[in-house]
């Protein structure tokens, strides 16, 4: 495999219906500290998980065009499980020369670590009821044979939006998010590592990563919690890298701190994005920008 070096002239575009995709951006910054990123938070139209397929596809195409215009992007990461589920194939057809990386619930890794054979999956209705998810689930189960694994699928209506709204609240004001998490986990059954219990929980929405600590408190220390940020970051790195002429791989130890190394845009609440960028990425408010909502 040829050695690679960062292409600093073009950015990696990232988008989500809100701030959830910042969890993926967080992983990508750790994986590729030398790269430029442009993030689009489509908060004015969030959450995607409760929108029609046609709406999400239209928004995904519109945002991709905006990312291309703002950053001459070389790769686009669809950091939203709902948008990946319903729109990524359409995006690949519409923009055939642009690599796309999506996020999907990590079902296969979950089977690999589960000891009880019961895996819980939480996500939005759009993700868990999509044809893409059904295809993924069927393939993972077929590949696992002759061993078997039971997936307990739980749509979590309203949870992504509650996490989105949580951004501007005090960090101690988590009542709404806690109630929703507890309700949906209770609906799934008992968590633990005893026979018949769910011992692995898959986070099927990028927003949920931001409440992983809360989920951990509820399911207990022995339950595996799996998200997809690191795997997505590695795939984006692979698709975004360019060969070096010297054959020597270049490495960066520090983040690029230039003003244009990472830019975040939102058509929703600018203060919410600023709070999220500070809380989860340690980025100053100057990196965040507001743009008027525009129908696709």
Please, could you describe this protein's structure?
The structure is a single chain. With 296 residues, this protein is an alpha/beta fold. The protein folds into two domains: 4-103 and 230-290, Rossmann fold, CATH 3.40.50.1860; 107-227, Rossmann fold (3-Layer(aba) Sandwich), CATH 3.40.50. The protein is built from eleven helices and twelve strands. The protein has helices spanning 22-31, 53-71, 81-94, 107-113, 125-128, 131-144, 159-166, 175-188, 212-219, 229-240, 270-281; strands spanning 4-5, 12-16, 37-41, 75-78, 100-102, 118-123, 150-155, 200-203, 224-226, 242-243, 262-266, 288-290. A six-stranded parallel sheet has the order 5-4-2-3-11-12, sandwiched between helices. A four-stranded parallel sheet has the order 7-6-8-9, with helices on both faces. Helix 2 (53-71) crosses helix 3 (81-94) and helix 8 (175-188) crosses helix 9. The chain is globular, with a radius of gyration of 19 Å.
Helical residue percent band:
40-55%
Q: Low-confidence segments, ≥5 residues, pLDDT <50? A: 1-8, 244-257
The best one-word shape is globular
The CATH architecture of the largest domain: 3-Layer(aba) Sandwich
What is the count of β-strands?
A: 12
Write down the oligomeric state.
Answer: single chain
Kindly give the count of domains: 2
Q: How many H/I helices?
A: 11
Topology pattern, helix = H, strand = E = EEHEHEHEHEHHEHHEHEHEEHE
Largest sheet: 6 strands, parallel
- State the end-to-end CA separation: 40 Å
* Broad structural category: alpha/beta
**CATH topology type of the largest domain:** Rossmann fold
Radius of gyration: 19 Å
CATH class of the largest domain: Alpha Beta
Q: Per DSSP, what share of the residues sits in E-state strands of 2 or more residues?
A: 15-25%
Overall pLDDT level = 89
Question: How do the strands of the widest beta sheet line up side by side?
Answer: 5-4-2-3-11-12
